[in-house]
Amino acid sequence: xxxxxxxxxxxxxxxxxxxxxxxxxxxxxxxxxxxxxxxxxxxxxxxxxxxxxxxxxxxxxxxxxxxxxxxxxxxxxxxxxxxxxxxxxxxxxxxxxxxxxxxxxxxxxxxxxxxxxxxxxxxxxxxxxxxxxxxxxxxxxxxxxxxxxxxxxxxxxxxxxxxxxxxxxxxxxxxxxxxxxxxxxxxxxxxxxxxxxxxxxxxxxxxxxxxxxxxxxxxxxxxxxxxxxxxxxxxxxxxxxxxxxxxxxxxxxxxxxxxxxxxxxxxxxxxxxxxxxxxxxxxxxxxxxxxxxxxxxxxx
Length: 300
Fold this sequence. Notes:
15 strands; 6-stranded mixed β-sheet; 9 helices; single chain; alpha/beta; Rossmann fold; 7-stranded mixed β-sheet
């Protein structure tokens, strides 16, 4: 019989008792179903996201922020494995439910369970990407270049909004995570393994321009002025990374990776600057949220 427990292990009762008294509260936080994909497909709690326990480490980038408390659902062994891993990564586990629905009435199963492979997105794009998509309209063909994309949440999000993405990073591991995530979401993203700091000229030599170039949490000053050549007329530079002052709160501490005030505005002074704001992360680190639009050649 299924057991519903708090994170410290104290049993609150069988699942039938939860249905009556506490079960709805299980939906107050994201539910991570740590069973296999096959088990999830057969039956799972409505709204749960499937992260098989053995794949949690390689799918960390798909989890919500560590500040978001989680609930877990799975077998005893899977719960123990997932709980230990997530706690080691700084997550708070509010409650766990063992995988056994034998005590559920048919009516309760219909109310709380469903089948299929729908697994909701728990992550969000970067602040600057979310702001861009909500505030600026792009009609027709939309191509974008995501530089130093990492595991690619911003690339995935823009693809969901109809953009055709080229995502660049030096790490084959990060790009594989991006490709795997795209496959799970039924998306297509072009990836390019390239060391931007050594081989940026290879991007230039492709003679391809984009409707937007995106850079988040990355700074390599030698390429800043060259980014304009990758942006089509009326295209956008979308940038957000750490500013001087972030070193007080943590990394990065090297000035090479910290923007000065209005540095991006100076680099892209020939663009129409649409957003140039200082935004603070929850931990206090300042970032520059910057969006500018390239002017059409010959027009002022």
